[in-house]
Amino acid sequence: MRISTHGDYLIKLTRFTAFNCYLVRQDDGLVLIDTGLSGSAAGILKAAQQIGQPIVRILLTHAHADHVGSLDALAEALPGVEVLIGAREARLLAGDMSLDADEPQTPPRGGFPRVRTQPTRTLQAGEQIGSLEVIAAPGHTPGHTAFLDTRDGTLIAGDALYSWGGLAVSGKLTPLFPFPALATWHKPTALRTARALRALEPTRLALGHGPVIERPAERLDRAIAAARAFERA
Length: 233
Description:
The chain is of the alpha/beta class. 24% of the residues lie in helices and 27% in strands.
């Protein structure tokens, strides 16, 4: 697993070149954002050991297999760890694929594995978990969540966008890495989310797939412009 540091607080863990999860330094230890593919637990635990801080909390952006694949193994290895996920996405984590009446009636796409681990609690937009503000970011999945580090403006946005092969809004197909597009639930919602995340004016953008982007404003603008056709989807 490749480890890279971005700013004072963010550590990116990358497996198989294109699959990221993140450790974020907090006053009481490390927060892990997403757990990667199945088989990632050993590498994540080794990284935390090298950093010299315990993982005290696991935050999940969404319930796709490449983001919750190592949740059970990590929960078993870290007794007492907090596991938090957005309230809407918790239903998908539990295997409930039903849609609310006010949601687009398109079935969720992508792989949602069955996991044994249950969240210790669920999250609502606007909550603060240490330095991390919970941001609603639906589109890729109905309950997708992003996290904004209020100390330095880093936005950890899961698969709301992706930067492997060029920055793109989730749902925008890129030949080098088509998987996020193929697994996106509702493209118009994903575009609205991208615009809302751009309005936060993040200083750094960290995503589930691809490199971390510093000062992402111009690239976000181009990615949003390239996805305008989603409005007619």
